[in-house]
Amino acid sequence: MNDWQKDWFEMLETIADQVEGFFLDVAQDVTEAMNGWVEFSEEVSTHLNTTFVDEVEQSITVLVSPILEAYFGIGGAIEEITQPMTQTVEPMLKQHPACVGCRNFHGQYYGDSLFVCAMHPYGVGEGVETCSDKEAVNWGMFRSDDFDNW
To answer: Residues 6 or more apart from 135 whose CB is under 8 A from it?
Structure first.
């Protein structure tokens, strides 16, 4: 083979090696750039997800809180309005017939003990049909317009 052909093939091999090196460097740089992009996008995604969840949670809290407050407020109002009826009916259920219709009847349990009223914490004695401290509930103090605000 002639020298010029040999030089020609060596030059082509050198060019091929340099082109191959160039493409390997480009591939490595692109891989590093893509890895950086993936890490950045994961951070952004995590941040957006956290922010979105927090904002949705706050929005739900803002929407649900008034509903829950109204619900529990109505429960308290119902209990307050029905208190005279429960205080006059419950003594029958609690086996305290002398207390039926008395406005002093408390009838709440504290632990395992029933507190009947301040004058007779454990109720009047067994077999007693009347209580000397009994005050009748004045049903006239509850007007029908008290219930119209519902």
So the answer is: 102, 103, 104
Query: Is residue 115 classed as helix, strand or coil in its secondary structure?
Result: strand
135 close to 117: Cβ distance less than 8 angstroms: no
| Side chain identity at residue 109, one-letter code | Y
As separate numbers, helices (DSSP H) first and strands (DSSP E) second, the chain gives 1, 2
The residues that bridge with 113 in the sheet, in sequence order, are 110
Residues 1 and 72 placed together within one structural domain of the fold: yes
Same domain, 50 and 13: yes
Task: Find the domain containing 65 and state its range.
Answer: 1-82
pTM, entire model: 0.33
For 73-126, the pLDDT digits (tens) are 776 677 766 665 555 545 545 567 777 778 787 777 777 777 878 788 888 877
Same domain, 39 and 64: yes
- Contact residues for 131 (Cβ-Cβ < 8 A; gap 6+): 98, 99, 102, 119, 120, 124
State whether 10 and 77 are in the same domain.
yes
Residues 106 and 59 in one domain: no
Q: 11-23: b or e for each residue (b if 16 or more CB lie within 10 Å)? A: eeeeeeeeeeeee
